[in-house]
Amino acid sequence: MKRTDWRAPMIIVAAFMIGIPVNLVTRQFLPGILPASMAGAGDLIAVVAQILVSTLIIFITVKIMHRGEDD
Fold first, then answer.
1. Mind listing the pLDDT tens digit of every residue in the chain (71 residues)?
2. Which of 41, 50, 59, 70 is the S-S candidate for 23 at Cβ 3.0 to 4.6 Å?
């Protein structure tokens, strides 16, 4: 019987929680950076930034902790 590994869900939750401030900061600064014609894309860009940062954190953590390798 395989034991439950609590680290994988915690990595995902931590990455998501770190991504939320990235989203908020991006939404705060994008209106001043984007031209008026792209103002509607600010929310989409903020969500994409959150996803990219969260995914990057997960990949880096997996590489550092050597998750997925057989012991």
1. 566 677 888 889 999 999 999 999 999 988 888 888 888 888 899 999 999 999 999 999 888 877 655 55
2. 50
